[in-house]
Amino acid sequence: MGDEARSTDGVVTISRDGAVLQIVLERSGRRNALSHSMIDTLVDALAKAASDDGLRAVHLTGAGPDFCSGVDWADSNSGGRRPRTGDLVRRIPHTAHRVIELVHTLHLPVVCTVRGWAAGMGCNLALAADFTVAATDAVFWEPFLNRGFSPDSGSTWLLPRLVGMARAKEMLLLGEKVDGATAAQWGLIHRSADDAALDATVGTLLERLASGPTVAVGLAKQAINHSQHATLNQAMMQELFNLELSCRTSDFKEGLAAFRERRSPDFTGR
After folding, report:
1. Residue pair 192/184 in contact by the 8 Å Cβ criterion
2. Rounded distance, CA 138 to CA 64, Å?
3. pLDDT confidence of residue 3
4. In Å, how far from its chain's centre is CA 84?
5. Model-wide pTM > 0.70
6. Residues 120-151 pLDDT 10s
7. Where do the TM regions start and end (predicted)?
């Protein structure tokens, strides 16, 4: 891909910082709006992360002053050629929807840093992450109805579970914008911080997660997700199966040894 194509379509930069996978959305000229190629890169990177035993956390952020303004619908629909009937139903489950599913189900903790705009799918990416830390003046926005089409990319599933029906309808049906400080107060995100303290706050969180018992963290995340559509008995049975697995890890043995020796555990993620 040449430089011109890269600047037009945007890129997703993938790198490693120790055991942390760093994913950076880079399309600053369009507030990091997601092109088809960027979505494809996200799917590929997250799918590979799922089977990478060397990773212990994932960090998702945007380059420049904004996190992500969603899917670039204007660019996708400017070619003048009408897509075939059923195009969205055929394609989106394997692209945009797959990104949200991978962030939500990945057996690694996913941390998202939000500055500026987090709109549409950008908002839902932040909501699907396990921990989102936003600047106090960041803006979370679900603009779907303002543009004349119904919500997508998991917004109708994520929002009611995070903030309840009333606030979900406020954001989805009225298109109300929510700043970072309010989002933290509502429980929409993990926390907010002044812009100057944002990177340090995220860095501390990532360091804590990346030094944790990775297998147990992933199993706990899976059990929390499972419990959202399970009875109490079903949830406890899932916990039991996950406990059976986590008790066979090296980190479980280290946790017990550290408890007996009255010291902090040194988990290896295995």
Report:
1. yes
2. 13
3. 35
4. 31
5. yes
6. 999 999 999 999 999 999 999 999 988 888 89
7. none
